[in-house]
Amino acid sequence: MTRRERSTLLTLWFFLGLLPLFLRPLWEPDETRYAEIPREMLASGNWLTPHLNGVLYFEKPPLQYWLSAISMKLFGLNGAAARLPLALASALMLWAAWRLAKRLGAREPLWASFMAATGLMGFVVGQYLTLDALFSAFLVAALAAFVEAVARRREGAPALGWTLFTFLLLAGAMLTKGLAEVILTGGILFFSLAFAWKDRDLRRAVVRTALDPLGWLLYLALVVPWFWAVNRANPGHAQFFFIHEHFTRFLTHEHARQGSNNWVLDKLYFVAFLAVGVLPWLSATVVGVRRGFTFLKGRGPQGTDHLARWTVGIAVLGFLWPLAFFSLSGSKLPPYILPAIVPLAALACTFEREGEERAAYRRMGKELVVLGLLFLLAGAFFRHEVQGRGWVLAVGAGFAGLGLWAHRRAALSAPQLMAALGGVMWLLLVAGQAVAGPGKSVADLVRSTPANAQWILYNDTFQGVPFYARTRAVVIASTGEMGYGRDRLPDAERWFQEDMAALGPVAERMKAEGPARPVLVMTKPSTWKNLRPEERIHWVEVARSPAAVVARRR
């Protein structure tokens, strides 16, 4: 990596991967959940078994929880510190895009990093505290490291370092989200053998790298101890985690996460999200993929170069296999397809030919203009329904203006494009907070209440309450994914009730047990509005926002 490449990657990471993490409070429900679990690790001192609102939470492995807990230990119990592991995800993603594009032979591999960082899906998911960004970053970085290990072994150069790095990254993916890593990387590597089969040395390099005993020893040494220890401390963890959270989730609709009730729309779900997610680089991506397939057919200038063909093949599989796997799955959420973004960016960057820059700028400019018009129309037609309308219009003007500027290629240099598009992406984050933030955050509501309050979460699980109040809450009619942990509590009825009519009795019991501590309930405004009048007279509303209502028991 040259000094220029290093400084550019660091600049991209600082402005697009790190600073945006400080712009807004945590949003319900995902961000507060993934911040509360590490907060409880710090509060209890139990770093082995994840807990959420005081109950066992075995949905995912602990690596990101550990990273967030360490960050909050160092920088305080706040949303930015909880999000800080996303900065690691951004760094890995930028590096993986650059490394893969460089090995593919791109003239300017830094553009792959920029495209991955500024595509709508990569940018938005990279600032949102779930496990998807870090999991995807580990996967694509492992793919890039694997390609480098195979290439060096095929060329007769030392490859052990890259091999061990690959298995280290795969262990990180496994400890972040589980067995999906095995299926995704296993499928890509297995099918990539088809592109290496005619070259004996290359085929052996792929197999030797994938089955490297030292690599597997490192992987197992990193992965096995936690799974063994947590199942030993909590019998039943393995069955719930491996069977229920993987095979049941992906083979059935038990979690009600299908893309659509229509079978065709369900299977096209990720195609649509991927097309939108790579904007404003959709046309570049389509060109790159089409030329990649042409190259694999042997029609390109390097069609007989087996290493080059395998490298292009594994990049194509890097987006095609996740797309196929998740499309066939019974569980769908938009961020699942995130691992496809980096291979697509690398292909788009690699197959842009010299002299095509002006045409590429014009295509991207059209996409930016379309994006801008969509935001402008949204701001115009939904002016009464949309808060922060001015910011929406600013984003629309920013995208459209930049698109028109890009259409005039001679007036826009590459650094100017990077700076301008980065600025518009920042505007997008600010607009997102202005429009959706008031309805997604309960931080101000909780901070406005007494520190010693007792809390009830009614008909919705606001994990921001335990995070900001630093206390456990009673849950009524919203147990949801905490059901596994609830069923293993010796005093489950004290903390969880499924009957909505239990609100009054539970509040009176809490009031009697702690007369000096106010009893507060948080619920959605619609639930509060529909609360029975004979129950509501026992409560005094003390705070309200688009996200929730807070009331105190009289």
TrEMBL record:
InterPro entries: ArnT-like_N, LipidA_mod_glycosyltrf_83
UniProt xrefs under Pfam families: PMT
Major localization class: membrane
Gene source species: Geothrix limicola
Localisation per UniProt entry: Cell membrane
Keyword Transmembrane helix in annotation: yes
Ranges for domain ArnT-like N-terminal: 15-232
Gene Ontology terms, MF aspect: transferase activity
Membrane topology summary: Multi-pass membrane protein
Name this polypeptide is given: Glycosyl transferase
Keyword entries, A-Z: Cell membrane, Glycosyltransferase, Membrane, Transferase, Transmembrane, Transmembrane helix
Domain of life per record: Bacteria
Membrane spanning residue stretches: 80-98, 110-128, 134-151, 158-176, 182-198, 210-228, 268-289, 310-330, 364-382, 388-405, 417-436
